[in-house]
Amino acid sequence: MIQQAGFRTKKQIRKFLMNFRFYLVLILSAYSIYSQQIDSTLHKAYRYNSRIILDEFFLNWERDSRFSEEEEQRINDRINSDDTLSEVYKLANLFYKYLGREEKYYVIEDTLKYEICYLDSIYLCNSYLDVNRRSIVFFPFHLDRYDGGVLYLNSKYNGLLQNFFSSKETDVYRLGDEYELKRKIFEGKIHFYCRGTLSLKPYKYSKEDLIVPDLWLVIINTQLNKAILSYSIAPWSSETSEWEKIDNHWIFKSVRSKSTY
User: Fold this and answer.
1) Which stretches of 3-154 are DSSP H helices?
2) What domain range includes position 197?
3) Which one of 12, 46, 110, 261 has the largest count of C-beta atoms within 10 Å of its C-beta?
4) Per the confidence metrics, is the pTM higher than 0.85?
5) Mean pLDDT of 10-14
């Protein structure tokens, strides 16, 4: 095995392992430095009240919101080979088809969540009490059309925003004032649907205040002709709607329920 790999001596093996570790550390360090640079960019934009520095942050986010050619090909291959996933993707794209941006960018979560209903009625699968519920499937999601005004919120950028809005302040009133000042630098870029409680201002970051509407879950039957979508429509408000595939097109049928949380 060692000879097949091109190593004839233990010295050559040790040299290879040392070089491998060196390049691995170099790659990990470069990624860490890149993330820290983006993080510091956001803090600098706030500290110096600089729109130019803030633009740099969003240009980085725009770039990171694009799939590489290899990623896009791999995802498309998976979608094209999976009829269920293909239909779920169609439904998700219909849901986000008529996005209305209040600011320059619209933020969408980068993960699609769906499940297949194996019961006789898809409405039974919509009950959280149903013991036969299938585990939710997670899959990377991008719109099927390129839109430079759409940013995808992944764990990296969610973490950067959490870090930016974090504070050592303990008084909720002063926290509210600090949060509001930080949020204002994003005006014209992304919209925060901030929520206060009674007389308190919003005082901490939550991605739910940034992603509205947000498609939470798609439930689809095994015949791939009926689906239920659950999503938020406004801060603290959600809906569940019924969809049906007719003549090879998904049609919105009705809103089955509304709730506040």
Assistant:
1) 10-47, 51-64, 69-80, 83-95, 122-125
2) 80-261
3) 110
4) no
5) 55
